[in-house]
Design a protein that fits this description.
375 residues; FAD/NAD(P)-binding domain; 24% helix; single chain; alpha/beta; 4-stranded parallel sheet; oxidoreductase; FAD/NAD-binding_dom; flavin adenine dinucleotide binding
Length: 375
């Protein structure tokens, strides 16, 4: 009997999990063995991490973390926990091998890279599950004891942390410093950007625009001076509230011009890597002119899953192309507020009621748990 060949997906985030579930229903398990490889033994609802690290009452950690054991349900597929350090191609170019930190080598016929993002600061949830309680307790204590929290970055990360702080500590001083002339990037409408600023200032958040800081002060030190000369003498907890970086260092081992200068994976419209037709990429790690958001991963996953099946079936002419997704954003302002923006129909802006209905109240935890088989 001929041994089955591995189809390996690296990353059990939103993109990787969706691709794995789609393939598990359609792959011929007499020919192919599906492996979903993840650095953690669990998944975390990244939408919930701002509140997770601030709030001390909801015990969100009981719901915002799930094991990976129910991803495949009754469909074929293997969950493997390990950290990939490099990728080796075979001399013939057909397939390759993933080298794990443990020394284990995992061969593949087709590889899907969906390794996601690496976060710093409070949103940098540890890889080892046993380290999570200390991480949450540490940041909750820092926020609790701080007299003045300064968040450097006026995008979704800084805004959502500010909103959670104002929910939990209404009287605490909170400042957002944004280097641009408005909050967020200019791909969003002025109505959305100005509306979010108004909602924050109404809650007592100090918003400083057109300014920044060069480096974080030493831990425990109080007081900062911005580039523009503004002094915040009582600022005793200052953190960069910015987006993540792509988790792609190991992918550079494929050689050539695989990554761009920011570390994103260069892909063709079919979401294949140039020169590596049996390697696909999806999710936050791909170089594509769109904002990195979980809402877009469903579109990536559908293309990759369909193209993997076509490739294995020998129908390369049937490969589908990804054409991008509309821009949308839904940002919380605590449990009861927030704003949303959708780029279609000339730009649609929605306010607190919509944010509360879809995200602010539940942080989409029920949807997250359902995606991992925990209904």
């Amino acid at each position: 009997m001929v041994a089955s060949k591995n189809v390996v997906i690296v990353g059990a985030g939103f993109a990787g999990t969706a691709i794995a579930q789609a393939l598990s229903k359609k792959l011929d398990n007499n020919q192919y063995h599906l492996i979903l490889l993840n650095a953690r033994s669990y998944a975390v609802d990244t939408v919930a991490t701002a509140r997770l690290t601030v709030d001390t009452t909801e015990k969100l950690e009981d719901r915002a973390f799930v094991k990976l054991d129910r991803i495949f349900q009754k469909q074929p597929g293997e969950i493997k926990v390990g950290i990939v350090t490099s990728i080796e191609k075979t001399e013939t170019g057909a397939g390759g091998v993933l080298v794990l930190r443990s020394g284990e080598r995992v061969p593949y016929e087709v590889l899907v890279l969906a390794s996601g993002s690496l976060w710093d600061g409070p949103l940098g949830i540890p890889e080892d599950e046993e380290d999570v309680p200390n991480h949450l307790a540490s940041w909750r204590a820092k926020y609790s004891t701080a007299k003045h929290v300064v968040l450097v970055g006026g995008g979704a990360v800084g805004i959502e942390i500010a909103g959670e702080l104002k929910d939990t500590y209404p009287d605490k001083k909170v400042t957002i410093i944004q280097r641009g002339e408005k909050l967020f990037r200019d791909i969003y409408s002025d109505k959305f950007r100005n509306g979010m600023e108004s909602r924050l200032t109404a809650r007592g958040v100090n918003v400083i625009l057109n300014d920044s800081i060069d480096e974080l002060p030493a831990e425990g030190a109080a007081g900062i001076t911005t580039r523009g000369g503004r002094q915040l003498p009582d600022a005793d907890l200052v953190l960069f509230a910015r987006g993540p970086r792509p988790n792609t260092d190991f992918i550079a081992s494929l050689g050539g011009d695989i990554l761009n200068n920011q570390g994103y994976v260069k892909v063709k419209p079919t979401l294949q890597l140039s020169g590596h037709d049996n390697v696909f990429a999806a999710g936050d790690i791909i170089e594509w002119k769109e904002q990195k958001q979980a809402a877009k991963t469903g579109s990536h996953a559908a293309i990759v899953a369909a193209n993997v099946l076509s490739l294995l079936g020998g129908s390369t002419s049937a490969l589908k192309s990804y054409k991008g997704s509309p821009e949308l954003i839904l940002v919380t302002n605590g449990r009861n507020g927030g704003m949303a923006y959708f780029s279609f129909f000339g730009g649609i802006t929605l306010g607190d009621w919509f944010a509360r209905l879809l995200k602010s109240k539940t942080l989409m935890i029920p949807m997250f748990r359902k995606g991992y088989g925990y209904n």
